């Protein structure tokens, strides 16, 4: 009882504050960008949010269940391809594309999970990596899916009457709502008993079995949920950029998502979004100054892992907590 | 009174921005891989473009305006290329874009160009589809496409080894397979016989498991469409195992290039390909170009450098003909335009935006690319399969 | 009858011998990985880059006019020093946290990215070649094999045998095995455990470096070459059992034979998928690998 009490007052306040700051800042950024007439930055921010969704799915597995997915880009790419195919070949409907992508990725997540979840630790990581390699190779070689060139020509669709996907601010807001929805959904799950079990599995899986729970079932659920989140984010990509290519499933995308989560702060959910946002902006800015941006980000990552393993949000939260509890002395 | 002054100042400011737009530099965006596996190609592209810009600016620019090149790294990844292209079109407001290397990037960036109502040209991508079934009214191609390369090579094979027994070895992905298929049909059309076909995975490190199969086919010609590091491995291993003895090795233009020639070394001797450029093309324009390029960059130009050099002159000629940088006017001017390049006079076919040029069968001798034979532009170009405009 | 014998002699045998030369290379890579994991419980995601650095070391050494044989001796020493520094300087710092497994994996993953980029910056993206010190070919069972490959097989085999002897038949090996088995007990017996850790890591990295030197003339040298062996080496270690030298050797040789012979029957593109499939099946049946010990994940 006391446990619930404590955790529902101080920490979530700090995290909630950071989350509000993130979403409000993102929205303001997009509005300012639109007012200044520069849709490039608005679209870049939309892309950052989309990859933030992938980072959220990685954080769900890594930060909350304790599984390191080295191939999560597989589901992201699958979501993107399914969405593109639906829009091009079936019907140019936003909602249809989203729903079909989510269903497909849930199924794919189930199949993938059945293969991968039996193992833990590094075995899981490598099977996840292997799955992504194998499937991206299949797609790379399939002519009907555009093979190595990918598919262009994804049409512009209407989200709600009056709002088309090629409207930069409009689509930004759609993405903002989707990612915000995913974030809130995941936060909610973490407060439920199932969410608590995820954390327990991360800390000590054996003990969970002794408490009478089937860890395997919960891990599969988490894996499928992560696949759906990744797929849903991926489904938005072709709507933004008008094309898909096999590079969306390559290890680089999975690796980037992991870097985003670690730098932002794993286990905090909002850290994944911060990481994605900050690193996308950083890469864009660095890229204009030097060609060696990869190594800068690689070094940053190594420094974070060694010196700040809890990530940006991980370190900000205690600081904020302290300041917040100073402001409200009577409340705990 | 204040309002009048304000209006006057604003009008003046407005006029001068318009005037600036007319007299300011012409911005040309370059989205090319500056890092990653294709960085070597991106470097040649950069060298070619820089040299052309320097020469054009020194002789007065385009319609009196200087050319300004703005570079962005696409890392040979279409997702990054699209992002950078958009940045160049919208934030840097470039008038024209070029530099993409792999076909996926060219196609994706072409779409971005359409959405921004601007034009772009590729100087490297050779997938036939770019000016074929996936052509776009905003995309032009200055370099030779795969079909043209195959035509030149097949003609050479037919003339030097009539009725050849050809074995095909390609990397197992769409581009590798279609390049092999294109050459196979061109060669068979000229009387060659196919004795076997093998596709190895991309980034394959060891080709020795395939040599048994190749040997049993007893080919006298081996065609391969591997590229980059794969070529280094294939060729040195073939030499190791003696597979290349008494077999004429031919391949795609991307198989042996300036980037991997040093690493392949002696194993590349005698390799023949079909390409649109050689430093030994015997024309005064080419000699001048090669000298200027070598002086500037301490390296020979290759086809990527030469074609990138040529694209700026195409743009200049088109803008001068249209007397404007407006997209629609320039597009009309580029169609069927003839312009001068180190490879001679090229024509930009209006029907599919593919440049027509003479093609050469090139052989590697003593570490240099030499010309063996030539196929004329009209014979090499192939039919116009673009139906979108 | 004769055609089957002919097939065996002229098709299967050369394929199998080729597979053996590839197998020796893979085992060398997997050995370093499994030793590092067996003792330190650390997944070295940067192992491929250590292999690449070994190859680039040869390029530099040959470029200075020194012969290949010196490169073979010097490179493992250079790589060993580097490995020692890596372990002490970077890996030690995350070694004692409770999230050790994930953190070391992420750390070595980050190191791999930085090393690959550093190679690209220093050496450029274009490939380099290294001349084989042994040239010519020999006839074996009616087919020709390059002498250098035979040399690699023999030398590689000798190295593998010496490693096995070192680990199982010397007192140094006993110390290392003791520290792996029970860190605290060994420490109380006076074994300098942290130094043993660093030296073992250095040894594993040196093995990767030797593989790089030996294979450079066959597979050429370029910045992303580290990725060549990643999937294969990790699969071999997993299938053989993490920490088991016997497992790495057997799994390495058997898997490369399977791959070599299967490329006669199915398209070689499916090699990776086949390997992956075997790995999944082995893990489902025996999650600790063929010869591994439970508790090592």
Strand-helix topology:
The complex is a heterotrimer of chains A (332), B (389) and C (297).
Chain A: H1 2-7, H2 10-35, H3 39-65, H4 73-90, H5 94-116, H6 121-140, E1 151-152, E2 158-160, E3 163-164, H7 168-191, H8 193-203, H9 205-210, H10 215-241, E4 243-244, H11 251-264, H12 270-289, H13 293-307, H14 311-327
Antiparallel strand pairs in A: 1-4, 2-3
Chain B: H1 2-23, E1 26-32, H2 39-58, E2 67-73, H3 78-91, E3 96-98, H4 103-115, E4 119-122, E5 139-141, H5 146-160, E6 165-171, H6 174-189, E7 193-200, H7 208-217, E8 221-224, H8 228-241, E9 248-251, H9 258-264, E10 272-275, H10 284-297, H11 303-322, H12 327-334, E11 338-341, E12 344-349, E13 354-356, E14 359-365, E15 368-375, H13 377-381
Parallel strand pairs in B: 1-2, 1-3, 3-4, 4-5, 6-7, 6-8, 8-9, 9-10
Antiparallel strand pairs in B: 10-14, 11-12, 12-13, 14-15
Chain C: H1 2-40, H2 47-63, H3 68-95, H4 100-123, E1 137-140, E2 143-146, H5 147-169, H6 171-181, H7 183-188, H8 193-219, H9 230-240, H10 245-265, H11 271-285
Antiparallel strand pairs in C: 1-2
Report what the structure shows.
- The complex is a heterotrimer of chains A (332), B (389) and C (297).
- Chain A has 332 residues and is mainly alpha-helical.
- Chain A has a single domain (12-324), classed as ABC transporter involved in vitamin B12 uptake, BtuC.
- Chain A has helices at 2-7, 10-35, 39-65, 73-90, 94-116, 121-140, 168-191, 193-203, 205-210, 215-241, 251-264, 270-289, 293-307, 311-327; strands spanning 151-152, 158-160, 163-164, 243-244.
- In chain A, the strands form 2 sheets. A two-stranded antiparallel ribbon of chain A has the order 1-4. A two-stranded antiparallel sheet of chain A has the order 2-3.
- The longest helix of chain A is centred in the first third of the chain and has 27 residues, at 39-65.
- Chain A is globular.
- With 389 residues, chain B is α/β, with parallel strands linked by helices.
- Chain B folds into 2 domains: 10-144 and 280-357, Rossmann fold (3-Layer(aba) Sandwich), CATH 3.40.50.2300; 147-275, Rossmann fold (3-Layer(aba) Sandwich).
- In chain B, the strands form 3 sheets. Chain B has a 7-stranded mixed β-sheet with strand order 7-6-8-9-10-14-15, sandwiched between helices. Chain B has a 5-stranded parallel β-sheet with strand order 2-1-3-4-5, with helices on both faces. Chain B has a 3-stranded antiparallel β-sheet with strand order 11-12-13.
- In chain B, helix 5 (146-160) packs across helix 6 (174-189).
- Chain C is mostly helical and 297 residues long.
- Chain C has 11 helices and 2 strands.
- In chain C, strands 1-2 form a two-stranded antiparallel ribbon.
- In chain C, a hairpin with a 2-residue loop joins strand 1 and strand 2.
